[in-house]
Amino acid sequence: MTQGAYLHRDGETIAIKVGQELKLRVPIHTLEGLVCWDRYHALRRAGLCCERGVGISFLTEQGKFWRV
């Protein structure tokens, strides 16, 4: 929920970074879904999620579902 955070694929994990600082790394097999407020960064990293059946929901800045 930090503005400027982005997803990063690191092998079989999803890493969350703010700038160059790693905030969290989670193995993809432990996730059922992700909720993202910034679709640009998430879409670029969505390949691993799609490959592993992890759903991604996109929200607007106001918290409404974004229709893709």
Question: Can you describe this structure?
Answer:
Strand 1 (5-10) and strand 2 (13-18) form a beta hairpin. The two termini are 21 Å apart. The chain is α+β, with helices and mostly antiparallel strands. The longest helix is centred in the C-terminal third of the chain and has 7 residues, at 46-52. The model has no long low-confidence stretch (mean pLDDT 81). The protein is flat, with a radius of gyration of 11 Å. The protein has helices at 39-44, 46-52, and strands spanning 5-10, 13-18, 21-27, 33-36, 55-58. The strands form two sheets. Strands 1-2-3 form a three-stranded antiparallel β-sheet, with no helix packed on it. Strands 4-5 form a two-stranded parallel sheet.
Itemize the secondary structure elements and their pairings.
Layout: E1 5-10, E2 13-18, E3 21-27, E4 33-36, H1 39-44, H2 46-52, E5 55-58
Parallel strand pairs: 4-5
Antiparallel strand pairs: 1-2, 2-3
